[in-house]
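FW: tagging you since you asked about this chain on Friday. Here's the raw sequence from the shared folder, copied in full. Didn't touch anything.
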Amino acid sequence: MKIMKLNDQPVEQYDYLNSIPGGEVAEAQLPIYHGTVSGLPEGVDALIVASDLQGIVPVPRMETHTITADAAAESDMDLLLGVVLPAHVQLLSCLF
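HL: got it, structure written out here
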């Protein structure tokens, strides 16, 4: 397999939260680049190449009057960047 081309500019930036020294949290953006490779194995259409995807993606808080406050609190959960990013990248792949 060989990288033929890697674009200089990201096609998108994905917002997430990242831990920083001192136990604080900072907003960050993960740049997403498009590239072209040759020699992919049969049955493989694309690759997602990444390093560390341990950031957190906040899930919008659900506000409803049909469930109790305890049930709503239990449904609020942020997700790891590595869990949500593949679906987002799959949507972006429709552009190429």
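FW: Strands lie at 2-6, 12-20, 24-32, 35-38, 56-57, 79-80.
HL: agreed, and Confidence is low (pLDDT under 50) at residues 65-75.
FW: great, closing this out.
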